[in-house]
Amino acid sequence: MYVNMEQWLEIRRRVLREGVSKRQIMRETGMHWETLKKILEQPSPPGYQRVKFPKKPKIDPYLGRIQEIIEQDKFVHRKQRHTAKRIWEVLQEEGFTGGYTIVKDAVRELRRTMKEVYMPLSHHPGEAQVDFGHAVVKMSGVLRKICFFVMALPYSDGFFVRAYERECTETFWDGHVRAFKFFGGVPRRISYDNSRVAISKIIGPRLRELTQGFLQLVSHYLFSYHFCLVRRPNEKGVVEGTVKYSRLNFLVPVPQVRDFEELNAMLLQRCREDLQRRVRGQVKTKAPLLQEEQMSFLGLPFAPFEACRTQNARVNSELLVRFDDNDYSVPMEYAYQDVVVKGYTDRVRICRLHEVIAEHSRCWGREQQVFDPLHYLPLLERKPHCLAFGRPFELLDLPGCFEVLQRRMEWELEHGRREYVQVLRLLEHYSLRQLTGAVEEALKHRVYSKDGIEQFLAGCRPWRQTSFKLGQSSHLRLVQVSKSDVSVYGDLLDKGGAA
């Protein structure tokens, strides 16, 4: 007999409060004695309660075998693990006569109950976790895959996110440097997975042979580090969850940006806004918790870490230097010389001793050549006929007045092309805007020589390019010498000096 909650309440009130007899209630309602007894013993209907699990005679003898297959699959790549259908086929070969549905239900239930369980952990201030994630963005109209660096602080739940072209030593370094600046200090202990950027060899469960790049970073900031066991990312579960949170909340829908600078500015702003979010189980927002945690941080070193990969190289016959499988140009006077290449996340610097001789935007492609046309102008002056075929000059986007000047110089002068190259060499000292104005003025006055065009540039040349250099002491230009007072020499004559 079904009894709703109102009837349940009324029966209990009449019997237990008003003293109505149980027999009268049974006569009025027609319910069984056991039902009335249950109502009087319990304040609300208990609902249906199963005493024992139902028997499944066909599948029960094979549950152990299914469990064994699922356990073995944990050591196999996920793309080659047994599906429920494949398990059913294996059981049929071993004598199973049941259908596919009961096997599928059994596999689903076993996989759900066999998942690993974890111990809730407490996190101390000053600890951090690091990981890389991947996402897709639309950059300059092109859909492309990028990686993003994440550093998370489990205590305050603050995190820092920055996007890069790919995961490598330079981006690993740069992510740490920027994260430390964002948090206002260096965490005392940082947990990592077994990335090749930081680890060159796994020796044992906890022993690692570290890369030189990782050791340089640790030596500069002097923090402690911890590496997870192989295939145990749950040891840094906070940053694993933060990677997923950042992807779903910051990169969905797919961002449409101009370049990495715009994307990272957006990510930085979102990280700052997230500090105003309250953490579950906390009364405060993340910002005050981060301020408390900063008391446990190590101080930032006085000298910032230079997040660049350095390698020695030699300039080849085409004035190119190879770095990260790409070639970058240098000025002609450094041909065949040994140089040092510094690769940052956004640029490449080429140095000779302590002097920066060339700087280019970082190319993240493969087997590409990056030219600066100005580096090849001295060579072009010696070989002027290469102007039409030289690859570096394909990037030299000049206004139309230069083409007019070239035609007129080649028509008017005996060595017009060489003279035109000398005009281009003025770009070594003047900006393209300044030289364009001078060329336009020269065409108006029918002046077709390098010296003539340079007259229209008078006063445009920066003083640093006209400074007098005494060896390596060009800084002497900035020294101011006070005017001497010759009258003070009269004191020498009063003391017996000879004129």
Give an overview of the whole structure.
The structure is a single chain. This protein is of the alpha/beta class. The chain contains 17 helices and 15 strands. It has helices at residues 5-16, 22-29, 33-41, 63-73, 84-93, 100-113, 169-183, 212-221, 237-250, 260-274, 286-293, 377-382, 400-412, 416-424, 432-444, 450-455, 490-494, and strands at residues 127-139, 142-152, 159-164, 189-192, 199-202, 208-210, 224-227, 256-257, 309-314, 320-323, 326-329, 338-343, 347-352, 355-361, 369-370. β13 (347-352) and β14 (355-361) form a beta hairpin. α4 (63-73) packs across α6 (100-113), α5 (84-93) crosses α6 and α13 (400-412) runs antiparallel to α14 (416-424). The longest helix is centred in the middle third of the chain and has 15 residues, at 169-183. The radius of gyration is 39 Å and the shape is elongated.
